[in-house]
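Predict structure. Chain length: 242.
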Amino acid sequence: MAIKIAICDDNKEDAELLEKALYNYDDTFEIIAYNNGEMLIDDFLDDNISADILFLDIYMPGIDGVKTAERIRSRNKDIKIIFTSLSKDHFQQAYEVFAFNYILKPLNIERLYCVLDRALDELRSENNYKISFKYKSSIHIIDWRDILYMESQDKLILFHMTDGSKLQCYGKLDDIEPKLPEESFIRCHQSFIVNAAHINKMGEAHFSIGQVMISISKKRLKHAKEKYYTYLFSHMGRGYVE
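Prediction complete.
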């Protein structure tokens, strides 16, 4: 899958120089450029674009780079934000919006490629934990470690997340199960798949995740318990059995 990069810089020459350098690094990058923060924010909030990496100029008319980053970060906690600036004066603000890095202008290609190397290494590592699904017109990309359990209701799959939210998509658990890491997820019922990392108790015929009790069907009881024991032995201290 191609890496998606957004550039936001009101200086056309700086933006073009950065874009050229990025394509020279990897011509498979998918790059989109903006010349102001307002348009970038609108497209992000409306789900018109997604990006893995955002190069963001700090000094821009209207909404500056820091305020733009705050809005983008409120929607996307995973995007790698790399500030570009003529000044070192905004290091602290960059830290506060969890920027990945800070590159001074004029652009130093060697420095840029060093930062890119690190960003791409992290993205590859993080992508091992990602699954994606589509619901209506939106594509959701989530970290499977943040899933408590999945529940099938009629033609919908409900994702119960660690932050208390619920996401959903059309489909069957049979379709989503192969996308999940086999060692971490347990199909304990026709209607439920649980994340073993979040099980805090196993009863005679149920798993407990927080205050929620999830049934283990008779058909799947032996396999579910064996799989949970295997998980416990490989992740000592993450749960207990009643």
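Summary: The radius of gyration is 22 Å.
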